[in-house]
Amino acid sequence: MNQPKYNRRKLFTNLVNKEQNSLQKGDPLFEKYSRKDYTKGRKYQSAKSIDSVTNSNAKDSNVLRVNPVTSGLAPYTGPWTTAEVLHLLRRTGYGYKKSHLDMLLTMNVSQAVDKVLTIDATVPSPPVNYYQNTFADENNLPYGSSWVNDAFTGSIGGTSNYYRWQGLKRWCLGLGLNHDISIREKMTWFWYHFIPVDFNAIYQSANSYCGNNSARISYTYIKLFRDNALGNFKTLIRQMATHPAMMFYLNNQANSSSAPDENFAREIMELFTLGKDPLSQYTEQDVIEAAKVLSGWRVQNLNTATPQTNFVSSLHNTSTKQFSSFFNNTTITNTGATELDTFITMLFSKTQVVSEYICRRIYRYFVYYDIDQNIETNIITPLAQTFVANNWNIKPVLEQLFKSEHFYDMANRGVYIKSPLDLVIGTMRTFNLNHNVSDQTNYQAQYQLWATLTDGYLTQMEQVMGKVPSVSGWQAFYQNPSFHEYWINSNTTQRRFAYISAIFNGFNSTSNGLTTRIEVDLMAFVQQFSYATCANPNLLIDECIKYLLPIDLSATQKETIKLQTLLTGQTTDSYWTNAWNNYVGSPTNTSYVSIVKSRLKSLLVTICQYAEFQLM
Question: What is the pTM of this model?
């Protein structure tokens, strides 16, 4: 029975051997992570150690199969330990702080979820002129001043606007790096990936005013999501429908009675409210009629501090709009600007279709991509009912989900490939990496530091605010059948491991006379744990794995890690204990420091190079 074993890294080596992502059939490790068995139909696998996972052709391969996940939305009453708290923090934020873990451990699950779903009313400082030393702002906006209400008139401002929208991307990253324990930033990105606009597409708009003020309207679009992170979905759709950024992105700005444009009409149904699921039976004629309803809206006053979208009656289609039986043969007569509200009310009258579609998107973003009939019945349907019962407010839906036994089900832990944001921002926060410059008035240096991460890593990993592949957002969140596997290809995987290597080796961000070092502080990281833990190699490895990985490693793997890192080939645990005690007793002794640091670096790099570190 000496069946071949599978290294955990095989999950990624299999994927990166292909430029284009494809399903990994017959790979027990991939099946373990994805909870799929492609050869025997849809089944789940347990979260056992990979040491016990053998070749899929082995006679005992079915031993690891378990029944489909049947846990529901009943309140979770199981253990509330580090594992459960970190699962909540990983899924609702980007990484975590040790202080956040310690805080939530003093609470019960209900209190912890309430804390995560409580958004501070404090408004973050807006993006500023960081570029003055590179290019003088064309409106003479002072260095360090916010540009969000500073409009360009006429044809000026093109270059400044370019720097502004580049800065906006970096500023969004900064908010993620500095976010508190709340879900606000994760929800901001949820809404953005769900209802996106492309900053560059707006920047390239043929309208000169839009082109020179695109950064400002892009900022207000993201602010719309941040302000409404846990708010009312129907209200958000109404505000989005006439927001200048969306008007230009999906070209409803050009939609008129004489030149109809169906782009936004199609996407508001297909992508933003109804979806393409079997119950969503709107017709092509419905799209045509919707475009008529939506005609006549125009973005005006872009060269002022308060651009707005107004209704221009002369451009509106005044005919009676006849919708299909899917919408109960609704007719919308010529009432001008109020037709838009009537149309949105009609969309939301399809309560089951809209609520279930949105809840599936939420589920795939926060839990897992695979929705079978059990999950549809036990999770999606009741969440959708909660959504409707609460008049389209999103917070009660998330509260019910995050407090449920299903959310903490072992089958839902460590099976979700981290998005680039989860990897880059999450790792920096988890390791307490320095991401703020020492002089907070050196805006150029601060934005350059953020640019190092956005341009150097996130762009290469294919996830940056303001840059989406299409109006559908990132494929990892919606595209069947691969979903989160889309994050993995030969290029992005190399960048992922290059990033891990970089933060342990350290690198500098230098701008405007200020250098900031970005490097894991090994001593500070492990000293978050107790002295007894740090002095015992077995306890230290256990604690680091528990803190950094979503699922445990086997005893054999831990022993191998210990021998190769903390003991460096020695056979007794006292070798590490003595080294640690020597350092604690004489922390300025360069020899003692060097011995401990080199072994800690080896330990943490080894753990972070496991495929499990790419999962959450």
Answer: 0.89
